[in-house]
Structures are given as C-alpha cells and as structure tokens.
Write a structure and sequence with these properties.
8-stranded mixed sheet, alpha/beta, UDP-N-acetylmuramoyl-L-alanine:D-glutamate ligase, globular
C-alpha cells in the first residue's frame, strides 16, 4: 500500500519570467510571428523582439509553475523543480514562487545563461503570441532532482515545453521512474504543437508504456498527437490508452475521460477576455486540485473551468482573485 504523501503535486518545468505587452495583430505579422503560437528564440531574436515591444509588464511565469501557483492558491501542498540563474530575474522568480507557499530549493545557476524569459504579445481579443528564450531553464540537470521529494508527492506534473532541451528531458525521465517506483501518479501536459512535432514519438512511447496517468492536451494537440483531425476521433483513439485524458477546447469547454467514463464542462463565463496566457495551466491546476482529493471527474473539470476563467480575465498567468472563494461560490 502506498504511504500517504507529504505533497499533493510536485512539478518540473521552465522557470520563466513573462514580459507582456499589448500588440495589434498587424504588428504581430510585421514582426514575423505566428499569432497565437509559441516559438523558441535565441538571444538575438529575444533582444530584437523586446526592443519592438510597447510598455510591458514583468511577472513570474512558466507553464508548470503557473499550475502550481493555482494549486497552492487552492490550498494544495506543492513543490517546484526548475532552474533559474543567479541574476535579478532569477531572484524575482524564486521570491514569487516561495511567496506562494511552494517549496523551491534548486540552487541558482552561476556563470552560465541568464534566467529564462517569455516575450508575450497580447492581441486585442486576448490571444497571446509567445516567444520564449529558455536561458538557464534548459540546463536543469538530473542532479537537481530531489527524488525523495518526488516520491513523497501524490502527483508528479511535467510540462511538455521542458521536454525539448536534452538535460531537462533526461531529468524528467528519471523523475518519472522515481514517481512510478514509489507508486505515485504522473501527469503530463503536451504544452504545444511544436513540442509534439519534435517529440511526439517520445510521448506516444511513454503512453504506450503506461508511464503517464493523466494527460492534458488541447484540441489542436490532440490532433497532432493522434494524427486524427476530428475531435471525437482523436478522443476515441487516445482515451483507451490512458487512465485519465483531459482535453480543453477554449470557449467550447473541456472533456475528460477516465476508465471509460466521460464528463464535459462548458467554459465558465467571463465578462471580457483580457489575456489567454496561462488558461491551460490554470485549468490543469483546478482539475488536479480536485483529482488529489478524489473528487468526481465532472467536479474536477468544473474546478478547471473556474480557474481558467479567472486567469483570462486579467493580464498574467498567476491568479489575482481568491480562487478558494470562487470555487466555494460555484461548486
């Protein structure tokens, strides 16, 4: 029998500071960006895009870290594993995540790349176009893993974005082994179509090996992973391979299938969509907050929808409203 866990969720992900600014769609096209996408950029491109941005706001981000911020705000016990540099943005990231009550003990990188940052151009309708400079985050070594901490968490949560660099990919494989060896669950977010294009074979192999217990995807990622263009066809092909499959559909809500049981939720109402950055991250936070408490599948989805609606109502991918209060009022 698996022992009770000290943590609800331990996540491994990019330690990123988001730099966000509003931008007209025409300007996004002029700068050669794909509206609504996420592109990895090198130092030169990051500098040129930063120079092209209007007045911007800086705030801690990173997909898995955003999910933990939502989970912690809902009362979950969380820890984060990611790499920052010994610089100003690294100190900002470390402060923010610890201030949220999330354990974070990975030493800062010295003498190497600076802390990662994501340059986010926000369209008038709230759509975000992201350009990510991975910096120090792509050098997370296996040695940074606290396998005892991983083994003491109910769920290990991994973001697909961090699968791209070699060092963190190796670290995440080791983390999966540690979690599964301790009888814990592994949750995985596919993150983006470009990640699937580069590492889809890895993800499909992990699923086939039974290494993933909960898979988070959006409708486009579902199609990219399965090669099936119809939503229902993709669900039918992938769901039997996983204990839990969660697929978000933006304004159309979300679907989850677990052991043949299907549940759906409509998108929670929002007065105005300001910025969609972090919508999937916070949906995962809400869903996992219910899952670790063994809540019914439909309730987990509803929690995800509530958290996603809060995050798209303002700039930034960290909650501003009291998520506990929102959940209590709605569930």
């Amino acid at each position: 029998m698996t022992a009770p866990a000290k943590y609800d969720v331990i996540a491994i992900g990019n330690a990123i500071v988001d730099v966000m600014a509003p931008c007209a769609d025409a300007r996004i096209a002029e700068l050669g960006m794909a509206r609504g996408g996420m592109t990895l950029v090198d130092t030169g491109r990051a500098e040129s895009l930063y120079a092209a941005m209007g007045p911007a706001r800086e705030m801690s981000g990173g997909s898995a870290a955003n999910t933990l911020a939502g989970l912690a705000a809902l009362g979950a016990r969380c820890g984060f594993i990611g790499q920052v540099a010994d610089d100003q943005l690294g100190a900002v990231f470390a402060h923010d995540i610890r201030a949220g009550g999330i354990a974070f003990d990975v030493p800062a990188l010295t003498g190497g790349e600076p802390t990662a940052r994501c340059l986010i151009f926000v369209s008038p309708d709230g759509q975000r176009t992201m350009n990510t400079f991975l910096g120090a985050s792509q050098f997370l070594p296996e040695a940074a893993l606290d396998t005892a901490m991983i083994a003491d968490a109910s769920v290990l949560y991994l973001e697909g974005y961090l699968w791209d660099p070699e060092q963190p990919r190796s670290a995440m494989r080791r983390a999966i082994a540690a979690a599964r060896g301790a009888g814990r669950k592994v949750a995985f977010s596919l993150s983006d179509g470009f990640v699937i294009a580069r590492h889809g074979d890895d993800f499909r192999a992990l699923i086939a090996a039974g290494a993933i217990d909960i898979l988070f995807a959006n409708a486009d990622e579902l199609a990219a992973l399965t090669g099936i263009t119809t939503f229902e066809g993709g669900l039918a092909a992938l769901a039997p391979q996983l204990p839990v499959l969660v697929v978000t559909r933006g304004a159309e809500g979300a679907v989850a299938i677990a052991a043949g049981t299907r549940a759906e939720v409509a998108a929670a109402p929002v007065a105005k969509v300001v910025d969609t950055t972090g919508a999937g991250d916070l949906f995962a936070a809400g869903f996992l907050s219910g899952h670790v408490r063994a809540a019914p599948l439909a309730e987990c989805l509803k929690l995800g929808a509530i958290c996603a609606a809060e995050i798209i109502s303002h700039y930034g991918a960290r909650p501003e409203a009291d998520l506990k209060a929102l959940v209590s009022a709605a569930v």
